[in-house]
């Protein structure tokens, strides 16, 4: 199951699990759309392709909440 990380690792912007706009690699490194575009859709950590992260809504989000651990390091 995806962690649904709460923020962009590059700029720190919030990325709610129930909204589109987050991009992830196969290791779940997470970026916002502007940062993913600036990175040419390549993860700077592993070199993997950044893809749209699916959303998690309603009861699924209630039963399986998103991670609260932020990854952004200023």
Automatic annotation (TrEMBL):
Stated name of the protein: DUF1272 domain-containing protein
Pfam families named in the record: DUF1272
UniProt superkingdom: Bacteria
InterPro entries: DUF1272
């Amino acid at each position: 199951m995806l962690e649904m990380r709460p923020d962009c690792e590059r700029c720190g912007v919030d990325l709610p699990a129930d909204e589109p706009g987050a991009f992830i690699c196969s290791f779940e490194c997470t970026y916002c759309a502007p940062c993913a575009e600036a990175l040419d859709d390549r993860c700077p950590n592993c070199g993997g392709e950044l893809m749209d992260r699916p959303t998690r809504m309603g009861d699924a989000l209630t039963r399986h909440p998103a991670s609260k651990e932020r990854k952004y390091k200023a």
